[in-house]
Amino acid sequence: MTTADITPDIDATQEDRAQSIRDTLRDAIVDRRLAPGTKLSEAEVGTLFDVSRTVVRAALQMLAFEGLVKTERNRGAFVSNPSPEEARQIFASRRLIEPGIVQSAIERLSADVIAEMRAHLTEEARHQHERGPSARRSEIKASGDFHLMLASVAGNAILEKFMAELVARSSLVIALYGRSGVSSCGHSDHAAILDALESGDAEKAKRLMLHHIDHIETDLDLRNKEGLALKDALSL
Questions:
Q1: H or E, element range at 40
Q2: What percent of the chain has pLDDT over 70?
Q3: How many angstroms separate the Cα of 125 from the Cα of each of 92, 119, 142, 228?
Q4: Among 62, 90, 102, 229, which residue has the fewest nearby CB atoms (within 10 Å)?
């Protein structure tokens, strides 16, 4: 979904600006620089980026669609603060949905798709061996993208949208509460799943996917984290 889909009243220039603000805020959230519950004041964000509240609102709506920001009537927008129970529900939902995605995807795989996914795994492995905040963001994103690629191959647009939200919410939980400081969505797990898919073994691929989701969840330390003030978090 694009900014134009969410806020059709803004023009193309404003849409580009809103996307840029969304990207900056998302990076700050994933990097733990903005703690759960941090208020994202439209006025303050607008001042920091020198844009109108309309543009800020569009950026916040994009983040809300991803589950990274929550908006409250008469209070404003806040960085989502997933509780331990919400985190468990996210991964419980993935356990219900992703085996079905695997089953559908295995029926639609082609040599080209396999090659594309193996190229993605190579890129994912590169990010895992890098250091620093930007590498960490890239590694978390690449790990989530593997699951989104499978959802796309499955050919169900509704499931694909649902997975996009679940992966975004998972990324927030992993970034905030992952003990290892990386996504823990292991490259070796992904490679094993892809091997099973390529061999046509749907049951093995589904078992590996469930084990993989368990692996991600066991790396979580669901305690509150402290972050920086909005201006400092965005380094503006």
A1: strand 39-40
A2: 84
A3: 27, 10, 9, 30
A4: 229
